[in-house]
Amino acid sequence: MTTVIFIRHGQSEYNFSRHFAGRTDAKLTDLGRAQAQSTAKALARFPITRIYASPLSRAMDTAKPTAELLGLEITPEPGLYEIDAGEWEGLAYKEIEEKYPLEFYHLHENVALLQAPGGESMHHLFDRVTSCVARLVSENRGGCIALFSHAMPLRSMLCLWNGLPFEDIQTIHSGPNASITVAEYDDHLVSHILQMPDSSHLETVTALPMGL
């Protein structure tokens, strides 16, 4: 069996200010860094053999306390990047709603059709992320890997792990910042989910609502 632990990054500056980050390198807030520390303590119970993270600093910095605690390196993995939001990058959600009403509608009502002007489609992100995870599982058979990523990649993996077609991804919601999701793959690379996004490990650290 191969275990995959998928962690959403801690609270970023753009989560706090309600801006769409996408590929913009929004940093962790003080709360996000505290969430990363609590996440590391929770992950210590797993026999993690490799750590991968989106190259964006909010994912890398969430992974850092876990890597330090376990004595492991962090491998940057571009396949775990957040969605490229094109013209939405860095905009406030209110501004996106005003300037791009149709695409904003898709974000909330039919995310399978989402593609910000000049950006990556949700379908492309789904294919990118699920292919990346399948490759990492194949390269780490029998191991336990921790993947630090973002909201839309997590949503994609939850869709796959729950056995839903991509067209039903609207029914899937990503977990809160610093949530931990666990899935297991058998020797034939058939997966099933063991733990839905969980943030109970944050203890007294306040978990924030979902945001990109």
Task: Provide a descriptive summary of the structure in words.
The chain is of the alpha/beta class. It has a single domain, classed as Rossmann fold. Helices cover 37% and strands 16% of the residues. The protein has helices at 13-17, 30-43, 57-70, 93-99, 101-109, 122-139, 151-161; strands spanning 2-8, 50-53, 74-76, 144-149, 180-185, 191-198. The model is unreliable at 207-212 (pLDDT under 50). The protein has a 6-stranded mixed β-sheet with strand order 3-2-4-1-5-6. The longest helix is centred in the middle third of the chain and has 18 residues, at 122-139. α2 packs parallel to α3 (57-70), α4 (93-99) crosses α5 (101-109) and α6 (122-139) packs across α7 (151-161). β5 (180-185) and β6 form a beta hairpin.
Descriptive tags:
alpha/beta, Rossmann fold, 212 residues, six-stranded mixed β-sheet, disordered C terminus, 7 helices
CATH homologous superfamily annotation = Phosphoglycerate mutase-like
- Average pLDDT level: 93
Task: Kindly name the structural category.
Answer: alpha/beta
> Unreliable segments (pLDDT under 50, ≥5 consecutive)?
207-212
The spatial strand order of the largest sheet comes to 3-2-4-1-5-6
**Would you list the SSEs in sequence order as H and E?**
EHHEHEHHHEHEE
User: How many angstroms does the end-to-end distance come to?
Assistant: 32 Å
Assign an overall shape: globular
Q: What gyration radius follows from the Cα positions, in whole Å?
A: 16 Å
Number of extended strands: 6
